[in-house]
From TrEMBL:
Places the protein is found: Secreted
Name of protein: Expansin-like A2
Gene source species: Durio zibethinus (Durian)
A cellular component annotation (GO) from this entry: plasmodesma
Highest taxon, organism lineage: Eukaryota
Domain Expansin-like CBD: 156-238
Gene3D superfamilies documented for this protein: Expansin, cellulose-binding-like domain (2.60.40.760), RlpA-like domain (2.40.40.10)
This protein's UniProt keywords: Secreted, Signal
Family annotation (PROSITE patterns): EXPANSIN_CBD (PS50843), EXPANSIN_EG45 (PS50842)
Keyword field contains Phosphoprotein: no
Record gene name: LOC111298117
Primary subcellular site in the record, as a coarse category: secreted
Family stated for the protein in its record: Belongs to the expansin family.
Amino acid sequence: MALFLCLLFVLVSSAAACDRCVHQSKVAYFSKASALSSGACGYGSLALGLGDGHLAAGVSSLYKDGAGCGACFQIRCKNSTLCSSKGTRVTLTDLNHDNQTDFVLSSRAFMAMANQGMGLDILKLGIVDVEYKRIPCEYKNQNLAVRVEESSQKPNYLAIKLLYQGGQTEIVGMDVAQVGSSNWNFMSRNYGAVWDTSRVPNGALQFRFVVTAGFDGKWIWAKSVLPADWKTGVVYDTGVQITEIAQEGCSPCDDGHWQ
């Protein structure tokens, strides 16, 4: 397990090395936000509570087989006549299968790139040239939370969805144990933001997460999360906030011009 995590850290660090560098691409938009909230990350209607409803589908290199779910980006279009220099901030909730653009945004997020009063004008363009970079997610007074999925079945199967992941990190590993026990069982990413296990300990449950941080990884321990009588469909507070930042290792990618 330790060797696996070390290799995983190297792979993730390499793949995410330029996350905060500025990238050049194009973005389009969905006319309905529901198309993104029902996306590959599995957030469902809860997606509308992430990033003020400024949602995005990202290409596979950003989605990262689900590890990129919940990641935050700042995007600004390069049409100086229509668009502001501030741009928009979005949360990744879906996989974009069309490689013609790195992102497909909710219409709300797409219009937010425009100067005041020009939202409808930018919508008429449909696709715009942009530059973007990865930024930390910020959830004030909101800890990392887990939602017990309806597919969970006591006592043998538990599926949870991770919500409100802060910082600029990706969760790349996750374990579960009974509160007070050191007998940890690993969980697997089922899809998107959903993790599961068929080896569910009895009693109240604690979790520990491996997140990308610095140039390597870091354990985050949530000591008491699910009560012994946990129920499906309920969101539980982990009591921890993830604020770590994954460092860049890409000197050719310079974001110094981003003002």
